[in-house]
Structure formats: structure tokens, C-alpha cells
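Course assignment 3, question 2. Fill in each field.
Student: A.L.
Task: Predict the tertiary structure for the chain below.
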Amino acid sequence: MKQKIHRAMFAGSFDPVTNGHLDIICRASNIFDELQIGVLDNPNKKGLFTFDERVELIKQCTGHLDNVKVVSFEGLLVNYCEKHEINTLVRGVRSGADVEYELQMAHMNRELNPNIETVILPTTTKYSFISSSLIKEVLTFDADIKNLVPKEVLEALKRKTNRGK
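Answer field:
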């Protein structure tokens, strides 16, 4: 009997990738045979980092994880997953508000493709307040964020903004 390979996708804009994201990535990589990190390129959204910079930063931060692959895609996530035989979406949640939003997304994705399941992982408590938006906001005030982002991201933020401790 052929063993099924369990591929999962953790998608987001990751602008920038945070320790909270990495917590979910590391934990999901222990659950699935293959974890793809899908970097979304939304041309309508102006980010701090370019699309290529975000992809490269995630590659640097996850290089130690053998079963993690960083990819990019356009269009519907469920279409990409179907094409690449990915049967699970991984989502991280920090709060009740996140749960409500992720449930809506999970139901929509299931409606679009009933063969794809969503697994929701609660973030580790020490990262429960971190978001990419909040990182960018406090960075404008020259806040110390070294415990909130990977060292590769901190260095990139310093270069990008001439800030960040």
C-alpha cells in the first residue's frame, strides 16, 4: 500500500516574517511530511519589503528545516494547493478575533475545494501579541524588537529603515 505524503501550506504576506510566524512554521514542519510557505504577492498592498526580499528572508529563516519549501503563487490558494497536491492549509491564531476570521476563511476554502482541510494552530503564548503590522508600527518609534523577529529580519529591517535595535 502506497503511503500518502502529507503536504501542507502556510500562506501569508510575511511583511516581515516574525518569531510568531516561525513558531507556527517550526511546529507545522514537525506535523507534516512537507510544509510549503506560500508568500503572497498582493500588488494592491504596499509592503515594507519587496516580494523578492520577503521570499529570501523566509528562506534564510527556515533553511534549517529540511521539509520546508518557500514558494510564491498568484490567484486562489486552493487552486495552487490542488495543482500541487497539497491537502492541508495551516493557519496560526493569536486571539479570538483571529479564530473568527480563520474560521470564515476555512469555510470558504472548504466550499471552493472540499478536499483541502484547514488546521489551525494557536500561537505559543509568548508570541501571541506579535503581528507584522505591529512590528512595523513600533519600529517607526525606534523600539527594541530584537525578541520579536528572527536575527535575519532584524538585520534587514536595520538596513531598510536605518532603525531597529
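Instructor remarks: The chain has one domain: 7-129. The two ends are 54 Å apart (CA to CA).
Grade: pending
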